[in-house]
Amino acid sequence: MPQPNETTVTPLSLTPLNRVLSPPLGLIPPNTPPSLYASSVSHFLSIPWCACLIQTPNTIPFIPQCFNPQSPAHDQLVGSTLSGPRGLQHMLCFFHTEDEAHLQDHERPIMHVSSLFALGQGLSGYEGVLHGGMMMTMVDEAMGVLHEINMALGKTGEVFGTASVTAGLDIKFLKPGPINQTVLVNAWVDGVEGRKTRIKCEVRDGNGVELARCSSTWVSVRPRM
């Protein structure tokens, strides 16, 4: 029995929360804010270049888990601390299906996901320039979304059956990131080896200029016995 001056450490729980929100897919987690999906879609549809991406045939939008926290104890960095009018105003992800059977075929994962980030004034480092730490946060979240959507869709494979965490990340900053604008992060699976997933991504502004590129390694966490 622990003595009064001893600390009992509770193991971390990395159980997937399945908080992906996508009415087109019938994914509506409990306690989701009623206007979360509609407001994000409406915002990005008001931006012509974003609307072109979202309205491309066979495109399915969704709100990622990080922007739809389960509780005040989960996903607070992006979903609470950074979100707001001066911070991350909206986030919307989307992917394209290859054909009508793609969603139902559990052996064909989603290999490419794009994420739109609406960036507010409060995310600057230097005046008018997006903070580099925010750029790294965006690419980390955008790459993690690949695991989330495949888990939500019930795709098979060891890396999609449990939660995955970032094991390594290498980023190259190519141009200053903007604020008070929207940026696009394209992420794709570069390879899978056992419990490891190699994921790459690129960050582009509304004119298609590449702002950063990143490669990473993710490891699926074995369930606790």
Write up this protein.
By secondary structure, this protein is an alpha+beta fold. The protein has one domain: Hotdog Thioesterase (Thiol Ester Dehydrase, Chain A), CATH 3.10.129. It is built from 5 helices and 7 strands, in the order ααβαββααββββ. The protein has helices at residues 36-45, 48-54, 76-81, 132-152, 158-161; strands at residues 59-62, 88-96, 112-119, 164-173, 181-193, 196-204, 210-220. A 7-stranded antiparallel beta sheet has the order 1-2-3-5-6-7-4, sandwiched between helices. The longest helix is centred in the middle third of the chain and has 21 residues, at 132-152. The protein is globular. The model is unreliable at 1-15 (pLDDT under 50).
Short characterization:
With 225 residues, this protein is α+β, with helices and mostly antiparallel strands.
What is the strand and helix layout of this fold?
Elements: H1 36-45, H2 48-54, E1 59-62, H3 76-81, E2 88-96, E3 112-119, H4 132-152, H5 158-161, E4 164-173, E5 181-193, E6 196-204, E7 210-220
Antiparallel strand pairs: 1-2, 2-3, 3-5, 4-7, 5-6, 6-7
- The spatial strand order of the largest sheet comes to 1-2-3-5-6-7-4
Shape, principal axes of CA atoms: globular
Largest sheet: 7 strands, antiparallel
Quickly name the level 1 CATH class. Alpha Beta
Question: Helix and strand string, N-terminal first?
Answer: HHEHEEHHEEEE
Terminal residue distance: 22 Å
Amount of helix: 10-25%
Radius of gyration: 18 Å
Q: Give the amount of beta strand, in percent.
A: 25-35%
CATH homologous group name = Hotdog Thioesterase
Overall SS class: alpha+beta
Nearest-integer average pLDDT: 89
Total domains: 1
DSSP summary, beta strand count: 7
Helix segment count?
A: 5
Known CATH architecture: Roll
Report low-confidence residues grouped into runs of 5 or more. 1-15
